[in-house]
């Protein structure tokens, strides 16, 4: 034992001596490997797609596209036999929820970025099912209101949550022009959803989308995304400029109430009769806001008189968000409160929006490319081996105190994370293919053009080291 102790002491002495012999003259200390917790560096499109594929396989298994009898559990294949007891088969997620409308758009973006038919097939199968059952259940609903609530959302939407995100995904699918897509079959669903948004949704006196909860005449930041992108995309689908005008008007009227310029962030809620208006900068709601601006700018004609104002707002929001990114790539549940937890769905939305802004030429690649890349590392670290997205805040109402937001639970079955992850992955693939990221002195940099590998390491004075 004494010999062992002496041996260990000798080894410790060698290690100490070795450490003492390492200095700035004999060792390139700047090349020491940092202990990153979620990864760092430039991803490859193949690595990004691997993460996305795991998520797709998981959600495919958790969202069966079929009808069943709720009493017997047996599949209903013949629509002539459908009745009030027929419902969409329940998996982990709901095919007609707004969260799944986000997912459909994320999966379509993944298809466009990868060309992998598995992504298109996922959306097509579920859109087709909804298109097939809608006329059948419209008749059943007219006779008996007690139908499956997940089907009722399609037949008779009661809120922007029922209509906007699913409708927008259907418009995008239609505009893709894929001859195999059921464009004709889903057009009546699109028109029904859009009619609700344009003509039946509750509004303030000036026409801004609003709710009567939790207070009368409350404006929710979430509703930017739940309604406005569909309005903008209807402009493309119909060629009617009134939709572009309405979408732009809504964005700017939300901003009049919700934008906090000194923070570069949006508040979550605004109540007409409240004074002052507290500002709680909830992560996912700010995600819906910047995602809405991306969606609108994607289709709003550049010549539109409000295009520049919306673009400037997006740039200001991007700057405000980038300043608050945590060092592992995430953003906090309450963006400006570092004592709240790191949240994945907001992080995924920002990753998509910042990457998309760069790819569209709205944002500087040098400034925002590294932010998006670091964000993707955080997003990828949130996807477990099953394809579940971890650290996602569950569905959240509105409050005017910090405890409500800080203590909201997270759960892998919170549907809000899946679409944003796929959307983020798709845009990261586009970013990596279209831009010119490189590791320089171990740091992620984006360049205006491809930098040769043998000239990518530089000294601090700008001269080439290798």
Biggest sheet architecture? 2 strands, antiparallel
End-to-end CA span: 51 Å
Strand order within the widest beta sheet: 1-2
Count of alpha/pi helices? 15
How would you classify the helix and strand content by structural class? mainly alpha
Share of residues in helices:
40-55%
E-strand count: 10
What's the gyration radius in Å? 25 Å
Query: H/E order of the elements?
Result: HHEEHHHHHEHHEEEHHEEHHHHEE
Q: Which regions are unreliable across 5 or more consecutive residues at pLDDT < 50?
A: 8-17, 454-466
Beta percentage is: 5-15%
Mean pLDDT across the residues is: 92
Give the overall shape: globular
Assembly type: single chain
Tell me briefly what this model is:
The protein has 15 helices and ten strands. The chain is mainly alpha-helical and 466 residues long. Strands 1-2 form a two-stranded antiparallel sheet. Strands 3-6 form a two-stranded antiparallel ribbon.
Structure description:
By secondary structure, the chain is mainly alpha-helical. It is 53% helix and 6% strand. It has 15 helices and ten strands. The strands form five sheets. It has a two-stranded antiparallel ribbon. Helix 9 (241-258) runs antiparallel to helix 10 (283-299), helix 10 packs parallel to helix 12 and helix 13 (365-381) crosses helix 15. It is globular. The relative contact order is 0.11.
